[in-house]
Amino acid sequence: MLALVFPHLPTDRIARRLWGISWRSKGRPEHPPILCAGRRDNAMRLTALDEVSERFGLRRGQGLAEARAMFPAIAVVDEDEAADQALIEAIADWCDRYTPLVALDGPDGLFLDITGCAHLFGGEEVLLKDILGRLFQMGFDVKGAISSSPGVSWAVCRFGHGGVISHDDIEKVLAPLPVNALRLDAAAVSSLHKLGLKRIGNLLSMPRAPLARRFGTGLLQRLDQVLGLNEEAISPRRPVAALSVERKLADPIQAEEHILQLTGQVAASLKPGLEARGVGGRVFELVLFRVDGRVFRVLVRASQPLRDPKRISSLFSERLTAVHDDLDAGFGFELLRLNVIEHELFKASQGDFTGDGHGDASFADFVDKVSARFGPNCLQIAELRQSHLPERAEDFMPAMAARVVGENVEEAFAFVPKVDRPLRLFRYPEPIEAFAATVPDGPPQRFRWRRIVHRVVRAEGPERISPEWWLDGKDAEERDYFRLESEAGRRFWIFREGRYKAGDAAPVWRVHGILA
Predict the structure, then answer these.
(1) How many CB atoms lie within 10 A of CB 24?
(2) Confidence of residue 246 (pLDDT cuts 50, 70, 90)
(3) Rounded-to-integer distance, Cα 195 and Cα 503, Å
(4) Disulfide engineering: 230 pairs with which of 224, 276, 309, 360, CB 3.0-4.6 Å?
(5) Would you call 240 exposed, middle or buried from its count of C-beta atoms within 10 A (0-12, 13-18, 19+)?
(6) This prediction's pTM
(7) Confidence band (pLDDT; 50, 70, 90) for 350?
(8) What phi and psi values does residue 436 have, to the nearest 5 degrees?
(9) Which of residues 488 and 393 earns the better pLDDT score?
């Protein structure tokens, strides 16, 4: 487990903006100390300091007026927690080059689960040196530690000297560290200090029963976690890809055609892994790592499982066309990765005598390309719902969400309404004025709709549909539907809401749709 901490992240963000991202390697220019201030307890206090401010003796939480009185030349900037959060998330994205298991640790730290990844970079020592060196070149003050548990890595990188800690040296390394390194709350730390227990080594040599009686099980749990006796899971900020293939580039690339060409090559390397699992990808993610540390993610979806590298590359071609203005290559991309986020079983079939299957895939290919360019909601299909009322019996969903039925992809998008339902169903039934309706259950002889009177020559019905009382309430009226044909040959689907009752007002008539 690799833990990283950025003790001066807010001021590093400001320094990168003032002097460029490589300001640390070039040396700090002559400039007053940089501090961030924000309102705390109805007063302006210091929330972040740079190294120069700390050498001057300033501290976090100190009043801004007191700091200005001590050093009038300080440069104070308003705190921006949203910008700091965006920056730490951008660093976490950049850390994906080392492992997909990256978790946030508060506003200034990261956890990286590098299990099985260190050998790809030459070992743990080389990996730690590489990541710290790269982050230093990007203008960040960072400390890191690698150990067998998150607790040890967290404690050593924040309160120790960092580095790689072997399992046999854990107790020796932890002993001189303060009890704050156990990630205890302020009240527990204060109670330990009152008893003279200021170092972790003081607790390691004490019997556990008195500690549990006085401080509860929380202290013992933290001790077990830092010693590696209890496992502590971290929550990655992004889902782990089922399959992933990447390509490191000696010369960064910038042109879109080079990106697409390399994507096709990487997709070809992905195909054997999909075939070995008997699956095809439904959601693909292209991750582009720019040389200055910025990361771009391009996501595409397929309406059916895919393995063909050409089709996968064509989806990214459509998507890159849509996001071309937002994809700033800068000085180029040095690392390209293709992830399979979601996959499904792949059913291989021969679509025709030639065996290419293009006829069956043409419609799905159209849906994939259009959705990749204009977004997943640009194409909608009707989906049946379980409801008595016609306006609730169907709903529209993105075509990308459809599943393949059988061997023909077009069956997934087929929608066949009932034969006795109108071809055009209004979203909201429109009121009509009915004349000479046969009481109690007959259709009207004439009705006025949109200022036009229609004379009925044929009628079918009624078809009674009960209300959904669990949605509309117990007072909802039932409906009697009729299919009517006018003298002009137009066919309507109307209903009467409620029944004729003696002494009550006539029920309301509405037109709900038009039949073919």
Answers:
(1) 19
(2) very high
(3) 88
(4) 224
(5) exposed
(6) 0.75
(7) low
(8) 55, 45
(9) 488
